[in-house]
Specification:
Number of helices: 9
Shape: globular
Strand content: 35-45%
Order of helices and strands: EEEHEEHEHHHEHEHEEHEEEEEEEEHEE
Distance between the termini: 29 Å
Oligomer: single chain
Number of domains: 2
CATH topology of the largest domain: Rossmann fold
Helix content: 25-40%
Structural class: alpha+beta
Number of strands: 20
CATH architecture of the largest domain: 3-Layer(aba) Sandwich
CATH superfamily of the largest domain: P-loop containing nucleotide triphosphate hydrolases
Radius of gyration: 22 Å
Strand order of the largest sheet: 6-7-8-3-9-10
């Protein structure tokens, strides 16, 4: 398989923060490659390097066999499109949002119309041309953002957490669109995700990231074959547990992860399983939740870490759970070591491997 892009000994430093540390990676033409890792592991920075929106502090980047330099980076950048995690909609119609990049490139009006309509059809938004983009649902806005990128028809599409904050139905739809873009348009896709289930089902290859480094890279079966056996000690992703699963009469899967801690999941499974809950998917409160949610656990804070823009807590509920909250929330709740707290998370957030 031909190489589309390659990073050699790439390091990226912001002030005193090393966002990427000596990264070596190849992107094969026509593949879907997932960057799997926790928040702050360097995934977004790596995508920006591949999109030529950031310049490496050290190292070399190659695209289609050419070394990327100051002289050719503007032209090479035309071959890449990045969709950011936070969807940005212009105060305009869906058509104008999708056509924006094409108009910047001064394409003929007829070709713009053809590309916009084809992109909207691919994301399932035919007939939305005249709708106001900012009045759409979150899932629909994400599809408009994808259509805007698809319309440019670039060789490389970079997606930063493309299903973050979407409900399971919309997340599944976005995943179907990503697969269709790769399959039908032959577009090479590199996507960042913290969702193990997504990484297991969608990409051809996976790069495991932590602390700005790639610890492993390989095909799905290779990565998850190792990971499923060593999940409990896999430090790159917190909140990984091994437990015994059983399915109840109403179809809910309950997983006993030990120490009398039982969590509910939506995927039906029986027997021994490995599970992962992203720290970003957990809500914390000092007061009991007034909710019928199955996953509500009481515990105490045993560790507090300031990791920049957020505070990371470790909460002992019988098993240690990592939780991330804003500094403002931490201050308002007046939390401290040994504070009694409650955590909750959706059953759909429990990813079973």
């Amino acid at each position: 398989m031909n190489l589309l892009a390659e990073l050699k000994s790439v390091t990226k430093v912001y002030g005193k923060v090393v966002a990427l540390d000596n990264v070596n990676m190849q992107v094969n033409d026509g593949e879907i490659l997932a960057l799997l890792g926790p928040n702050g592991s360097g995934k977004t920075t790596l995508l920006k390097i591949l999109a030529f929106l950031e310049k490496p502090s050290k190292g070399e980047v190659y695209f289609c066999g050419k070394t990327v330099t100051e002289g050719n980076v503007t032209q090479i950048r035309m071959n890449c499109t990045m969709v950011f995690q936070k969807t940005v909609m212009f105060n305009a119609t869906v058509y104008d949002n999708v056509a924006y990049g094409l108009k910047i490139r001064k394409m003929p009006r007829k070709e713009i119309a053809e590309r916009v309509n084809k992109a909207l059809e691919l994301v399932g938004l035919e007939g939305f041309n005249k709708r106001h983009a900012k009045k759409l649902s979150g899932g629909e806005q994400q599809r408009v953002a994808l259509a805007r990128a698809i319309a440019l028809n670039t060789k490389l599409l970079l997606l930063d957490e493309p299903t973050a904050n979407l409900d399971p139905k919309n997340a599944a739809l976005i995943e179907e669109i990503i697969a269709a873009v790769n399959r039908e348009l032959k577009t090479t896709i590199v996507m960042a995700t913290h969702n193990m289930f997504q990484a297991r089902s969608l990409p051809n290859r996976i790069a495991l990231m932590n602390y700005g480094r790639i610890s492993e890279i390989g095909e799905q079966q290779e990565i998850f074959g190792k990971l499923s056996k060593t999940l409990a000690s896999f430090a790159a992703l917190e909140n990984t547990f091994v437990g015994e699963a059983r399915t109840t009469e109403n179809g809910t899967t309950l997983i006993n992860i030990g120490n009398n801690v039982e969590i509910a999941a939506t995927n039906k499974r029986e027997g021994k399983v490995s599970v992962f809950i992203s720290p970003e998917d957990i809500i914390l409160s000092k007061n009991p939740f007034k909710s019928s949610a199955r996953n509500i656990l009481k515990g105490r804070i045993i560790e507090i870490s300031d990791i920049g823009s957020v505070i990371k807590l470790r909460v002992d509920v019988g098993k240690p759970f990592a939780v991330q909250i804003t500094k403002r929330s931490f201050s308002e709740m007046k939390l401290d070591l040994n504070s009694e707290v409650y955590i909750t998370f959706k059953a759909s957030s429990v990813q079973i491997l």
